[in-house]
Each structure stands twice: as C-alpha cells, then as structure tokens.
Design goal:
This protein is an alpha/beta fold and about 210 residues long. It is built from six helices and five strands, in the order E-H-E-E-H-E-H-E-H-H-H. Helices cover about 30% and strands about 10% of the residues. The protein has a three-stranded parallel beta sheet, with no helix packed on it. The protein has a two-stranded parallel sheet with strand order 1-2.
C-alpha cells in the first residue's frame, strides 16, 4: 500500500459482530469483543509496520438488521453502555489518532440528528471516551447519512460544522470526477484551515 502512495487506510473494523447484521457479518473479526479487539490491534500494527496509518471504524459500532448503506439505524444504547462496553474496543485508535464513526441515531445522545451531524455525538466521543484524534464519519453518500441534504457539498459542511475533522463524501467510483470535485469545492475554507492545523495528528510515530 505504501508503495502505491497510500498512507492512511480506513481499517480495521473494530466493533464486535452481534445482532442480526447478516449483510456485513463477514466483515467482523469476531463476535467476542476481546478477540475482535485483539485482532483489530494486530491488523492496525501490521499496517503501521508497513508505513500506513490505520483508522479504526466504526465507532461505537451499530449492530442491526439494517444496512446503513441503505437506511438509517437507531441504536438505543445508554451513554454508559457506549462508554463502558463499546468504546473500549476502539481504545487503541488513540495510538494513531484516527477514528471513523458509524452512521446511526443514538437517542440517548441526540434523538434528532444522525451521528454524522450531531454535535452531541462528537462531544461525547471527545470528552466522555475521551478521544482527541481526528474524527470522520463514514461515507456521506450512504443513505443513512442523507441528513436532509441532497447535495454532497451540503452534507460535508453539515458534518464538519457538527464536529467532524474530515469527511469522506463518496464511495461511488463511477461518479463523474468533475461533479465530485465541484462538490468538494463547496467545503468552507474555515474547515479546510481547521483540518490543516490538526492534520499533523496523523503523522507516524517513530
């Protein structure tokens, strides 16, 4: 990956498999949280040794029968459950200062906004977990991240305004590159400057 010019990978998938998430069950390391955590750490170490920075995903986990690529999920975990049972699986993300969040509504934190657009969700992650590295939500063209904004540019600015450090607007590689660039150019310069100040968190540690 490093030889191809890739310096950050959005992996490992750190949450434990649970519930009826058949669609993505094969992506999980294990249903056992301890095993999932250990294997995620081994995967991250391997990336690091190869010169690539890992980015843990998808905090805090969103096991459900619902595929978040197609529709939003509601997770009724309490803040205490999120803090004591889910967050520990992502504890090692602090070593590389990068974490990707799940697309879901967590009513105990914010009953109105999906996590990508929820200031309360980002505050919980930064202050209660706590995690001080870079935070980005999952791809914003997923149906679960629609957020009332049809425009990718609007979605990006909405997530950045809520507290995200960076955004991943697309995973549809058949989209017109010029259209994608036009959407990306809608990002406010304020958020670009903010990211430039925090980007150093991704520098590899010797």
């Amino acid at each position: 990956l490093k030889e191809l010019g890739i310096d950050v990978v959005f992996a490992p998938l750190a949450e434990a498999a649970s519930g009826d998430d058949i669609h993505h069950r094969s992506r999980y390391f294990s249903a056992d949280p301890a095993v999932a955590k250990a294997l995620a750490e081994a995967f991250a170490q391997g990336l690091d040794e190869g010169g690539v920075t890992p980015c843990y995903k998808h905090f805090p986990g969103a096991p459900s029968k619902t595929d978040s690529h197609k529709t939003a999920q509601r997770i009724d975990d309490s803040p205490e459950t999120l803090r004591t049972e889910k967050a520990p699986l992502f504890a090692n993300a602090a070593r590389w200062n990068c974490i990707m969040t799940a697309h879901a509504v967590y009513p105990a934190l914010d009953a109105k906004n999906a996590s990508a657009y929820s200031p309360a969700f980002y505050r919980f992650l930064r202050k209660e977990v706590p995690f001080q590295g870079l935070i980005l939500p999952d791809a914003l063209n997923m149906e679960a991240a629609e957020g009332g904004s049809a425009s990718a540019g609007a979605r990006m600015n909405k997530a950045l305004a809520a507290g995200a450090d960076a955004v991943m607007p697309f995973f549809n590689f058949s989209a017109d590159p010029q259209d994608m660039e036009a959407e990306i150019r809608q990002i406010s310069p304020v958020y670009v400057k903010r990211f430039q100040k925090r980007a150093g968190l991704l520098k590899r540690r010797n």
